[in-house]
């Protein structure tokens, strides 16, 4: 009786076996980006990131208020100036209002904006920036 | 006599090639749409909105000029000298920072960082020197 055994030297893995390693790495990368990343809504204008060395860890909320260097305000996909702000815009706000402002914005303009937000009933305001690496 | 193993056909539910295509598309989406930035947040409190008005005696009041230079009663301080002074103060002292007209936000925030890292916890912002 003669049994035919597969020849070691001529054994080739199936195409799917070669793909499995690749798909494993792709899945690991996908899980990494899902866990470590923060999905950001599209910004109506460019805002540079403020650098902070202190403060508490914070993730930008979906209700992020953007402030450009020239004072334009971006909120929920629309662009405003400070006079356009109204109490109704922040009526459904849950928790603190997160502000991401351009580092070149005039600091007095920022304080004016915060004063206006307080007048409109926004009590809790948080300024977010990237943690400095230094 | 030859014995051949029965060739059993395996049925796959999902083909690997379309699966990896979808995974790669998801991977590219999350790579491009997500931010890996390490975000920090500071709370903003304005002077005159609470009982801070009553604490004049325990208050340090500084004007912040462009370049994160600090002024108090006509005396100008660099950031390092300011940090040294703040470290010698009790941590419950109230610091009021007033930005000068041309001061960018980043310079004001740098002074806040310096004061917080030097141990001061109560920092508010004023609009009038």
SSE topology:
The complex is a heterodimer of chains A (134) and B (129).
Chain A: E1 2-3, H1 15-36, E2 38-39, E3 51-52, E4 56-57, E5 64-67, E6 73-75, E7 78-80, E8 97-101, H2 107-119, E9 125-131
Parallel strand pairs in A: 3-9, 5-8, 8-9
Antiparallel strand pairs in A: 5-6, 6-7
Chain B: E1 2-3, H1 16-33, E2 34-35, E3 39-43, E4 59-65, E5 69-72, E6 75-77, H2 79-87, E7 94-99, H3 105-117, E8 122-125
Parallel strand pairs in B: 4-7, 7-8
Antiparallel strand pairs in B: 4-5, 5-6
Please explain how this structure is put together.
The complex is a heterodimer of chains A (134) and B (129). With 134 residues, chain A is of the alpha/beta class. Helix content of chain A is 26%, strand content 22%. Chain B is an alpha/beta fold. The model of chain B has no long low-confidence stretch (mean pLDDT 81). Chain B has a domain at 51-125: 2-Layer Sandwich (Nucleotidyltransferase, domain 5). Classes of the chains: A alpha/beta (134), B alpha/beta (129). Chains A and B meet through strand 1, helix 1, strand 2, strand 3 and strand 4 of A and strand 1, helix 1, strand 2, strand 3 and helix 3 of B.
Query: Per DSSP, what share of the residues of chain A sits in E-state strands of 2 or more residues?
Result: 15-25%
What is the CATH architecture descriptor of the domain at 51-131 in chain A? 2-Layer Sandwich
Tally of alpha and pi helices of chain B: 3
Please tell me what the overall shape of chain A is.
elongated
Fill in the CATH topology of the domain at 51-131 in chain A: Nucleotidyltransferase, domain 5
Give the CATH level 1 class of the domain at 51-125 in chain B.
Alpha Beta
Distance between the termini of chain A: 76 Å
Oligomerization category of the chains in this entry: heterodimer
> How do the strands line up in the largest sheet of chain B?
6-5-4-7-8
- Per CATH, the class of the domain at 51-131 in chain A reads Alpha Beta
* Largest interface in this structure: A-B, 58 and 46 residues
- For the biggest β-sheet of chain A, the strand order reads 3-9-8-5-6-7
Most strands sheet of chain B? 5 strands, mixed
Order of helical and strand elements of chain B: EHEEEEEHEHE
Number of strands of chain A: 9
Give the % helix of chain A: 25-40%
């Amino acid at each position: 009786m003669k049994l035919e055994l597969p020849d070691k030297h001529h054994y080739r893995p199936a195409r799917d076996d070669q793909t499995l390693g690749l798909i494993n790495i792709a899945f690991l990368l996908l899980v990494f980006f899902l866990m470590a990343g923060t999905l950001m809504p599209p910004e109506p204008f460019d805002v540079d990131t403020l650098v902070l060395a202190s403060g508490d860890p914070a993730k930008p909320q979906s209700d992020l208020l953007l402030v450009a260097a020239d004072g334009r305000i971006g909120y929920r996909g629309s662009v405003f100036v400070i006079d356009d702000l109204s109490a109704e815009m922040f009526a459904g706000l849950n928790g603190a209002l997160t502000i991401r402002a351009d580092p070149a914005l005039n600091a007095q303009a920022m304080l004016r904006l915060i004063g206006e937000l307080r007048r409109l009933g926004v009590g809790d305001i948080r300024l977010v920036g990237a943690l400095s690496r230094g | 006599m030859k014995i051949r193993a029965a060739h059993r056909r395996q049925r796959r539910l999902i083909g690997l090639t379309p699966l990896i295509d979808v995974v790669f598309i998801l991977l590219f989406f999350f790579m491009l749409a997500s931010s890996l930035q390490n975000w920090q947040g500071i709370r903003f409190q304005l002077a005159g909105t609470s009982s801070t008005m009553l604490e004049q005696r325990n208050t340090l009041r500084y004007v912040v000029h462009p370049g994160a230079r600090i002024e108090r009663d006509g005396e100008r301080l660099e950031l390092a000298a300011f940090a040294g002074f703040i470290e010698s103060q009790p941590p419950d002292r109230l610091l009021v920072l007033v930005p000068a007209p041309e001061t960018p936000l980043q310079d004001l925030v740098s002074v806040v960082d310096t004061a917080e890292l030097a141990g001061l916890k109560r920092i508010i912002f004023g609009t009038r020197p």
